[in-house]
Amino acid sequence: MYGLVLEGGGAKGAYQIGAYFALVELGFEFEAVVGTSIGSINGAMIAMGEAEKCVELWRTLNLNDLIKEAEVRTVASKTNKQEDKSDEEKEISEVIKAILSDGDEILDSIKSAFMDLLNTKTVSLQPLKDLVSNNIDEEKVRNSKMKFGLVTVNVTDKKAEELYIEDIPKGELNKYIVASCYLPVFKLEPLDGKYYLDGGFYNKVPYNMVEKLNLTPIIVRTGPADIRDLSFPKDAIVIEPRKNHTSVMDFDPVKADELIRIGYFDTYKKIKSLRGNKYYIEDFSEEEAFKIIKDIFFDKLDFFAEDSSFNLSSKYRRLFEEVIPKLSSSLGLRGNYTYADFVAALVEEESERQNIEYLRIYKISELIDELMKKNGIEFANYEVSKFNQLVKRIIK
């Protein structure tokens, strides 16, 4: 069985809810869901059985719901000198230093992050508390068939906390979710007398929590592959965007809706081994690729006889030994690529240039048809002049 692992990442977390819906459609069932920071909010709503409500939340949430405009300006400009701090703030600063000097296995970034919190302490925590209070039902989480877990850093007690729902005192789940999301921009404020920091500063991708439950991790990240991927278990399924589509604090309903859709289709790409970089293309055979190459190139090979950069006299040798290798290199293909790799890259490059809709799953023939419709012509009658322009544009 599987455990769902949701990385922290602020506004980028919309990606995760789209991925979850795709996983459910594909037949995956989860015994547990764990998350850090925004992943703990998504995870709690998934455990509640209210993923649809989570989608609607993302489609209406904007930055002003969390941080007022005046506070954003203040965070960007305000720094407090050490002598302006209260005795309590100075004491917390010393606690942070002690965490590291005591040799605890908490990342060095905690110190600088919490010092930032002490320096700015301008953003109210109340909107985040309200968001959690209005959307998380503790009883539903506790009664869920899916075990829930989260990560936070307890600064007061000098320890990181990886907590399952049974470890959290009854009535305090919302407090711990807020603690997991406690970014350094928020005002210094104790939660029941203790200070916390965003769990991402200790463990941004808590796959170990589902491993402890003897579950296979399905990790849904909020950013592209990085050094963390090297530490993931070999049997883990990792779903991640190909690039950063937005920033941590860029809460915007339009971007969130796109991220939900990207997460959905990226999951299908991962599980179904779809082709494409930006696009989502069903796999196809070498035989189909060869037929497409024939349809695109064979009737137009006379064009290459006029191009001095192609040297071979046989037009078929010229195609396979010069034209395709040159095009492939220009498309970024390296090593032992297949003809299917070549066709997918060629069609995708032109589709992106023509702004063909990318958030859907295509058969290669469907994407070619869309490309031809965009040009107002049928694929079989693709004009030599247009073909020549395409080749000349790709081969610089």
Write the layout of secondary structure elements.
Blueprint: E1 2-6, H1 14-25, E2 30-36, H2 38-47, H3 51-58, H4 69-77, H5 87-101, H6 109-120, H7 126-135, H8 138-142, E3 147-154, E4 159-164, H9 173-180, E5 196-198, H10 207-211, E6 216-220, E7 237-239, H11 253-272, E8 280-281, H12 286-297, H13 302-305, H14 315-330, H15 339-353, E9 361-362, H16 364-374, H17 384-394
Parallel strand pairs: 1-2, 1-6, 2-3, 6-7, 8-9
Antiparallel strand pairs: 3-4, 3-5
Helix pairs in contact: 1-3, 1-11, 5-6, 7-9, 12-15, 15-16
Keywords: Hydrolase, Lipid degradation, Lipid metabolism
Protein name: NTE family protein
GO biological process, one term: lipid catabolic process
Structure description:
This protein is an alpha/beta fold and 396 residues long. The chain has 2 domains: 2-64 and 120-272, 3-Layer(aba) Sandwich (Cytosolic phospholipase A2 catalytic domain); 280-395, no CATH class. Helix content is 46%, strand content 10%. It is built from 17 helices and 9 strands. It has helices spanning 14-25, 38-47, 51-58, 69-77, 87-101, 109-120, 126-135, 138-142, 173-180, 207-211, 253-272, 286-297, 302-305, 315-330, 339-353, 364-374, 384-394; strands at residues 2-6, 30-36, 147-154, 159-164, 196-198, 216-220, 237-239, 280-281, 361-362. Strands 1, 2, 3, 4, 5, 6 and 7 form a 7-stranded mixed β-sheet that branches. A hairpin with a 4-residue loop joins strand 3 and strand 4 (159-164). The longest helix has 20 residues, at 253-272. Mean pLDDT is 84; it is low at 75-85, 99-111 and 378-385.
